[in-house]
Amino acid sequence: MKENYVYDGHIHSPYCPHGTKDTFHMYIEKALLLGYKEMTFSEHAPLPLAFTDPTPQKDSAIKMEQLHLYLSELKQIKDIYKDEIKINIGLEIDFIEGYEEDTKILLNEWGQYIDDSILSVHFLKKQDKYMCLDFSAEEFKSMIKEFGSLEKLYDKYFETLLLSIESDLGKYKPNRIGHITLVRKFQRLHERSFDDHPYILKVLHALKSHQLSLDLNGAGLVKEHCKEFYPPLSYAKKAMDMGIPLIYGSDAHRADMLGTGLDDLLHVFNNR
């Protein structure tokens, strides 16, 4: 994290079905204004064909037929801006318990065209049912009931996150794990009566063991029921002390969200 080198490794795009239609150029021009030197567009990769998206609008990820268009357009844009900023063609890959082989097949087919990628957990499995952790406050509340308690929901989230770290997804498996405390998105609505510190430390040790990097994600700062980085900066500092590479990600779903939390982040890490 250097003041003279700003890299945003987690940015969405006009292809995101639950984002805005801000163009690639709008994102890039905003990035240049912020002084970015490098950026990764990491759109949600297509979900496995056999998997049913549990969100009401089925809009968690781009469709398979859009993937080629997304990659082709980014390849052209990457060339247009090559003298101004390094643009990485990327994907955010969903780790879905039980669909590891499908994900590996996707990565084996498309990984050669990708510069950078993130592996994230959004969906949790309960028996044969899947639920989207971060879809809404109402859905999160129903998941607490489904799993039996808030603590059991946290148990399942971090258990799934560890599975994602340890899973064999082939040679194109992402080397960065996304927003590792996403389960805290609605924490101001559901106060913890338990300590989640051991969970997060276990994840950090797994990242270190598997030589993976950490998505230091600013999106939680602007979520009204979260108001902190994913993970909080105290854990980011711990990760840095452990030698885990940190890559800032705005997780922007519209151009004006680029740079979320970046000033605070640079201040903290450049004054350690």
UniProtKB/TrEMBL annotation:
InterPro entries listed in its UniProt record: Histidinol_P_phosphatase_HisJ, PHP_dom, Pol/histidinol_Pase-like
Ranked from the top, the taxonomy reads:
Bacteria, Bacillati, Bacillota, Bacilli, Bacillales
Task: Please give the Gene3D superfamilies that the UniProt record associates with this protein.
Answer: Metal-dependent hydrolases
Q: What class of enzyme is it?
A: hydrolase
User: Could you tell me which SUPFAM superfamilies the record lists for this protein?
Assistant: PHP domain-like
Tell whether Amino-acid biosynthesis is among the UniProt keywords: yes
Q: What is its EC number?
A: 3.1.3.15
Keywords for this protein: Amino-acid biosynthesis, Histidine biosynthesis, Hydrolase
Q: Does the keyword Lyase apply?
A: no
Q: Which GO terms describe its molecular function?
A: histidinol-phosphatase activity
Which pathway, per its entry?
Amino-acid biosynthesis; L-histidine biosynthesis; L-histidine from 5-phospho-alpha-D-ribose 1-diphosphate: step 8/9
User: Record's family?
Assistant: Belongs to the PHP hydrolase family. HisK subfamily.
State the reactions this protein catalyses. Answer: L-histidinol phosphate + H2O = L-histidinol + phosphate
Tell me which residues make up the PHP domain: 8-217
Name used for this protein in its record: Histidinol-phosphatase
